[in-house]
Amino acid sequence: MLMLSRTAAALYWLGRYLERADFIARLVEATIRLDALSARPAGDAAWQSALAVTYTDQAFAATGQEPTQAHVARFLALDDGHPGSIVRCLEMARNNARAVRTALTREAWTAINRAWLLFQNRQTIGGATATLNLLEQVKGETRGFEGAIHRMMRNEATLLIQLGAAIERADNTARLVDVKYHLLLPQDERIGGVVDRDQWNTILQTVSAVNAYRWLYDDGLQPANVIDLLISRAELPRSLAACVEEVVALLNALAKRTGLQGEADRMARARLARMQKTRTHDAIVSGLHEHLEAFVRENALLDGAIARQFRFI
């Protein structure tokens, strides 16, 4: 059964925007905790890295504010003047959800609407404790939406929402690892030192992977193992390997239901084949920054191919 192209696009972008809102909430939460719990405060460098991960560093620089916790946390949570804030993501998700309201259960719609209502008439984000409470509420509602989607009938609507979320999740994880590896550690800090270890632990917290790391690796916190977990271990739902596999599976399921198959499927399968042959150590040795940049570019190209294949544009 074929659906209207604008309906397919709304479902896909609903998945992307909800996943993005959840990720930004996790990123801000983890950066606050890094700043508060580190042996030395994370300071402006950590908040600058949060802006870099979300591609909002230039937009923030245009405000003329210093990259402090108060300024950056508010910018990433409440500023609706750019597409990289939680409030803007939730607004766009809700707009898309309204366009496909009949495709969603009441439970799924309620989770989106409650998340959106958290930010209505909110002018300030408050201190660290108030911000963490707000972010926990955002994560709770996005988890509620994800759970509702998994309880919906497995049809084109749910598959497109999940496809959008998987594409967004892959992009977020790649950028997160890239910024930590390439930009985050201050020049006067040594690799493997206290600050470096705190930062890698914060990355694990951002993607809810602390327990997964402990299950899979026995030799304590090692940056190479964290990179391996987030790139190559399909057991972790937010790893690149897991996202790549999920995209292929979702496209296969959509092809069976809609008969639409083509460029996006070929690109996704080729990416999966390369991922299965790539070893984390080889990616680090040959240039992890370049490897992750190439992944982000390919993910964007795949996003465009999906749009053409399902006639979003």
TrEMBL record:
Species annotation: Sphingomonas leidyi
UniProt domain DUF403: residue ranges: 3-310
One Pfam entry name: Alpha-E
Protein name (database record): Putative alpha-E superfamily protein
InterPro entries: ATP-dep_Glu-Cys_Ligase-2 (IPR051680), DUF403 (IPR007296)
